[in-house]
Model the fold of this input.
Amino acid sequence: MKIFTLPDVGEGLTEADVANWMVKAGDTVTVNQVIAEIETAKSLVEIPSPWAGIVEELYAEVGDTVNVGDNFIGIKVTSTAGDDDDAPQAPLVGTGPKADTPGRRRRRGRPRAAAPAEAETPVASEPEPAPVPEAAAEPVQKSDLFAKVLAKPPVRKLAKDHGLDLTTITPTGQHGEVTRADVHAVLEADTAETTATSTAPVAAGESESIKVTGVRKATAKAVTESYTSAPHISVFRQVDATRTMEYLETLKKHPRFENVRVSPLLVLAMAVSQAALNTPQANATWHGDTYSLHHYVNLGLAAATKRGLIVPNIKNAHDMNQLQMAEAIQELTGRAREGKTQPAELAGGTITITNIGVLGLDTGTPILNPGESGIIAFGAIRQQPWVVNGQMEPRWITTLGGSFDHRIVDGMEAGAFLADVAAILEEPALLIS
Amino acid sequence: MSTISSPTGHQLPEEAIGVLSADGFIDPTESAKAFVDDATAIDHERVAEMYRLMANTRRIDEEGVNLQRQGQLVLWTPSLGQEAAQAGAVTALQDRDWIFPTYREHVMARGRGIPDEKVFDFFRGAVHAGWKPSDYNMQPYTVVLAAQVPHAVGYGWGIAQQQRGWTDARRAEEGRVAVACFGDGASTEGDIHEAMVFAASFDTPVVFFIQNNYWAISTPFEVQSKVPLFKRAKGYGFEGFAVDGNDPIATAAVMDHAVDHARRGGGPVLVEAHTYRMGAHTTADDPTKYRTSEEESQYAQSDPMVRTEQYLRRRFDYTDAFFDEIAAESEQLAVNLREKIVDAPDTISLREKFDLVYAEEHPLVDAQAVAFDRWMEDEDAS
Done:
């Protein structure tokens, strides 16, 4: 058995998480067949098999972190290096018979040669693929850089929505593209397989062990570090946001805001950015012997994504007018949702908003994003009875919660900061931009 | 920048010279008039040779990605999508002309007969330069952006000195040309400006061959330049052309003209070949982080290999037999390469590389070598 150790697939990477195994012990693999997907600090990368043979051992499970240079897969090699899987149909040199396995290369319009069956027994004990119609004859196993599969955008979306990799779908389209029907075929097959073979999820009454990896791991580390190093104080303030709600109705009808989403978060983001300039202690970084007061605002927005919680920030939010801010929020959250947040967006934040109102929560005591001294929890906005000029009235009420680093922020600064934010939510006309 | 939509969906400047449609029909752009006859007069042997270079390289390119993922290469730089531009350029040259490449000119290296394993030795980090430049009249791959362009101009200056006083006939027969390859990203480097000023001042026989693949790693071309790059030539005082770089015969015809102009002592020429990097910048890059799959699939439709194949079939009646032969040949090249590359030893040690940076003694490199020795001793001691 030959052991393949994990290579550095980037420039200077030291480890990677196993995202997916495409093979298991006992499987026959061909040279360059994709055997696994690994997730590095940079991207998801497919690993092609270096040898043809039979898989003997996988040295890591899905979710495990493997160091570069550690054992990755053991393969009992059954052919020489010259025995490439993707060999042409007619033998070119005397390297013996070759297994006629699925090819990676586009072979448009080439008639499939009548199988040269004479003595062409495959080396590996791999069953011959069953005869299939021409168009479906070449399922693809591609390395990611070459996975330029043709498909119309709606079909791409359909596949993506169901978590399917287009490169694994057999195209039957007129021009070799993956069609809607192809995707449905795979989905149906998957459903059939799941119902047939899936083991039941962990039964009630039992515990389930989950490996800590990726964003979960990073989040755990960040909150622990922040919570144990920065003494948090949390303060709350109820706010009558009725004027904000009315103001947003006006804004939504304004032609300049036609193509952008307008929500209470926009007003809060503007308010927090202005308040942070007035009370820079809430927009600061503790270093130990010194601390920095930032006279600019890189406004973080906590975002729940498929991969977990991330906090990208809007650079120089204090300089933005409302339209710019609305667009910035839309772009930032859009990229986060699509998993396309850039590393630069995650760095250099100075203060954060966590919009827990969308979860139906009224308030909370959030944990500071490491390196920041203020974080604001934006609670749900509900219609509640409220006393205005001695009269009970239904008003739109929300609760602002704030956590601050007590090494920099005392009650006085926390109060001043929330008062500034509240003032704008109560009267958005104070936004003079 | 004003653009027109080619039949491929590929956005080209309106001045771009293009002759073939995406499916290989002759369908010239407005600006192609002066070149249509030359392009369509290119014989089938040259088009077939371009196809062979492209197809062989694409298979080897794919093997490059695989070998990197298998830990055999430090890095690989795919040329996927840019094959036609390079094939058009390299077939426009005589063997006596010199090529100054970036790190992605795999089709041009093949056109010069450089064995695959020599190119791969470079990406294994196993050698100093990969090949001996004077064996192939092609400089080693240059990773430092734009550094090769002043080199090309300097070399061209030397050619100009040598050929001073030559007759037109002798120039046509024996004259030489230097080709400076670079991309849209490098076009922003100061070296390019200096090189172009110098080339214009001294009428050096240099062709500035730009492959504009629209992405400088993650920076899109519209950020890189507000005008198409070929327009810059006018400011320096020489001629510039934009060509559909995914159209092999248009690129070949324009490069033929540019090389001929430089060879005859007409001074430098700039050719901007508009192509598209269909793959990643390198194996350490992930393009899904900065561009959409919609964009990629749009450009996939202007795949130069498809276009060239269709043209050969339609115009010259090439059949499956030819394409099968090339596919088999490409496959065999990949198999042979794998045999030579997998677990191959380094041909020189890291220490020896210090001795190969300059032909003569160099105090800075000497000091670095001493520091390296000391560091190795410390490593051994610990």
Observations:
- Confidence is low (pLDDT under 50) at residues 1-10 of chain B.
- Chain B touches chain A at residues 59, 62-63, 65-66, 68-72, 74-75, 78, 80, 278-280, 283-284, 286, 288-290, 293-294, 296-297, 300-301, 306, 309, 320, 323-324, 327-328, 331-332, 334-335, 338-339, 342 (CB under 8 Å).
- Strands of chain B lie at 3-5, 11-13, 98-100, 178-183, 206-212, 215-216, 219-220, 239-244, 269-274.
- Chain B has two domains: 3-341, 350-381.
